[in-house]
């Protein structure tokens, strides 16, 4: 893991209480580099047919899976929020969930294909027509806990 | 073009459609028995979880067939406006098509030809890099029927069929009792290679977890082992995250197989290296044919993405990312592919067909698409149809309309629709737009 440059947290008044914001600021950490793998999941696939605006699909594409070891090292619990920033500087905030025991090695994140993963893709396709959409370096910062 | 079967006339009457075709993924299972009642599918026998969601969630969209600037409009007005948008542009693009039947894809290519536009399909953001690799290295291939009957070593690389193609194992690659594999699964060995221990690992005899972004290195290590080149164990472990002895063990299995197949997914094509990763895999497959029979197959995602490759290839000579601005087709991934024409701000008008770039594309590409006039055809409401200048709600292929699709192994499969839709098919919409485009352009042929 490399330590990345930290930038100040963006406050999300619409989504968290003042208490959470104060708590978050007192727990502010440096960003770390992770490798993000977006991919297909069953629920995301079913959600395409059932309706992209329905809760099942939205929940699936807006949940970041984090390895068990990284969750405990960062003091994260399911439902906490982290900010991911791509190499191109695009940022998203997303809720985390603990990955199944050995599904992810430490240092790797997984998210179902969707709006969040697309926001983190760069526009450059390196002459291939395909933006790098898996194995992307992202900076992770914890933004809200508990 | 077959447009649909007869409607269920009597309310409440049951209708059974046997051997219907599921077009949700590239497996294109054509053995689904549908029970239809009052224009709803109540049962989809043999469909997997994704196929069930595809069939059982299907209902006739209670939306206008055409919206112009978000307001209901007549289809005629929509066709006129669409033709104006496409003919007014200096750099019009047409994109999508992997969830449309071949008959509709053919019309889309004609429109692009008339307007000197650029055509691209969702292949460019799934196996486009594989398409580039096929041209560079060639493809040793086979049908899924051959896999079912002969494949005794099945390798999945960067692919998670348990979640993306749930019947792949049971219908084609692992479970079938084949002509030369009478004991089915017992006669086969399955190896999964991935950076993540996916749900597919349970189905495999061996899981090899490689370092992220090390596919190219791992494939070249295998190429070296195939040729008997001596490798430094430390370098192999450092570069691939896997011991040399594990790769040697795999190579021994590959050479001992009677008929090996590597199914590869977007773990290769979407990761740094892209077409170079796939080239390495195709070259390894070719190398192995010096020892035994080996084939490679891309696990294709959408139901007719293989059809899009075929149709665009036979119409233009190239599979995707084809520009007609000079009056003849030119192919250049990275320039004429939609991620690029949008993110670079070049396209000035667009038509998207059965795809959702507003949800799936990079932020710069989405921002540009939002700025230009575009037409969207989709069976469902999506972020893309919401942002379109003209949005057509179309009948769903395979459920409401017939036609032909290509399975992921390029085998054409007919569609058997279950019931009619009040919405037009994408073939009908595109045919009407083409007529108007020709009128505007003064083309009489
Ligand atoms: S494997 Fe694919 S084609 Fe077959 S039923 Fe499932 S979703 Fe449909």
Describe the protein's architecture and organization.
The complex is a heterodimer of chains A (146) and B (445). Chain A has a single domain (31-144), classed as Barwin-like endoglucanases, CATH 2.40.40. Helices cover 25% and strands 27% of the residues of chain A. Chain A contains 5 helices and 6 strands. In chain A, helix 2 runs antiparallel to helix 3 (55-61). Residues 1-26 of chain A have low confidence and may be disordered. Chain B has 445 residues and is of the alpha/beta class. In chain B, the strands form 4 sheets. Chain B has a 9-stranded mixed β-sheet with strand order 5-4-17-16-15-6-7-13-14. The radius of gyration of chain B is 23 Å and the shape is globular. The two termini of chain B are 21 Å apart. At the A-B interface, strand 1, helix 2 and helix 5 of A face helix 1, helix 4, helix 11, helix 14 and helix 16 of B. Bound molecules: iron/sulfur cluster. Iron/sulfur cluster (SF4) is lined by residues 22, 24-25, 27-29, 47-48, 50-51, 165-167 of chain B.
Q: Helix count of chain B?
A: 18
Distance between the termini of chain A: 25 Å
Number of domains of chain A: 1
Rg calculated over all Cα atoms of chain B: 23 Å
Q: Which range does the strand content of chain A fall in?
A: 25-35%
CATH topology of chain A: Barwin-like endoglucanases
Quaternary structure state of the chains depicted? heterodimer
Q: What fraction of the residues of chain B are assigned to beta strands by DSSP?
A: 15-25%
Largest interface: A-B, 42 and 57 residues
Q: What do the pLDDT scores of chain B average to?
A: 94
- Report the bound ligands by name, code or SMILES: iron/sulfur cluster
Instruction: Label the CATH architecture of chain A.
Output: Beta Barrel
Integer-rounded radius of gyration of chain A:
15 Å
- Give the helix proportion of chain B (percent range): 25-40%
Number of domains of chain B: 2
What would the average pLDDT of chain A be, to the nearest integer?
Answer: 82
Main beta sheet strand tally, sense and closure of chain A: 6 strands, mixed, barrel
CATH class of chain A: Mainly Beta
- Overall morphology of chain B: globular
Named CATH architecture of the largest domain in chain B: 3-Layer(aba) Sandwich
